UniProtKB/TrEMBL annotation:
Matches recorded under InterPro entries: Homeodomain-like_sf, HTH_TetR, Tet_transcr_reg_TetR-rel_C_sf, YxaF_TetR_C
Pfam families in UniProt: TetR_C_13_2, TetR_N
Lineage: Bacteria, Pseudomonadati, Pseudomonadota, Alphaproteobacteria, Caulobacterales
Keywords in alphabetical order: DNA-binding, Transcription, Transcription regulation
UniProt source species: Asticcacaulis endophyticus
Gene3D superfamilies, A to Z: Tetracycline Repressor, domain 2 (1.10.357.10)
PANTHER family: HTH-TYPE TRANSCRIPTIONAL REGULATOR YJDC, TRANSCRIPTIONAL REGULATORY PROTEIN
DNA-binding region(s) from the entry: 27-46
GO molecular function, one term: DNA binding
Protein name: TetR family transcriptional regulator
Residue intervals of the HTH tetR-type domain: 4-64
Length: 187
């Protein structure tokens, strides 16, 4: 197996474990269990557990930000509609019974207040995601796209966390009704 494939195997396996069980609750031994991966091999690719998690946040961000724009554009052809569709896209994951929430938010919360690669990777994801929303707001012709994007991301992240905590997609409906008023007022 090539180095790239072995590294990807570790990423794929660890991603699922951390997403399902949390970051502090999932130790390196659990990551290696049933995979044939030794500690030596794991640390060959990642200097620490935090470096592995940071890499996983990057993986999450790349995956989410590759799929989301395609799905959102499929749901609505115009930027204003795409802002609304972002909420529909994420709600659909909860509708399917996946209440995992946002990988980057979860990691950031577990590592809150520490200067780690986890926080740096989380902040990079949040910045990239915010820039994506800013571009939708700018393309939609809103007066202050930066301010609006900040408001949209607060509503979006709030809906994600509330849905995860309540194990219900209903918070997305509440967030979308507020979003509709916000978008109308921002023109």
């Amino acid at each position: 197996m090539t180095k790239a494939l072995k590294k990807q195997e570790i990423i794929d396996h660890a991603y699922e474990l951390f997403y399902d069980h949390g970051f502090h609750a999932t130790g390196v031994d659990k990551v290696m269990a049933d995979t044939g991966i030794s500690k030596r091999t794991l640390y060959k690719y990642f200097a620490s557990k935090e470096d592995l998690i940071a890499e996983l946040i990057g993986h999450y961000g790349e995956t989410f930000l590759k799929i989301a724009p395609v799905e959102i554009a499929r749901l609505s052809p115009d930027p204003a509609g795409q802002i609304m569709a972002l909420f529909d896209f994420r709600k659909a994951m909860f509708d399917e019974g996946s209440f995992r929430g946002c990988f980057a938010i979860s990691a950031n919360l577990e590592y809150s207040g520490r200067d780690t690669p986890v926080q740096a990777a989380s902040l990079k994801f949040f910045e990239t995601f915010l820039n994506y929303i800013k571009s939708l707001c700018a393309d939609g012709g809103y007066k202050d796209p930066d301010k609006l994007a900040g408001q949209v991301i607060v509503l979006f992240n709030g809906a994600v966390v509330a849905s995860q905590a309540s194990r219900s997609p209903a918070p997305f409906d509440a967030a979308k009704s507020v979003l509709a008023m916000l978008l109308a007022a921002a023109k």
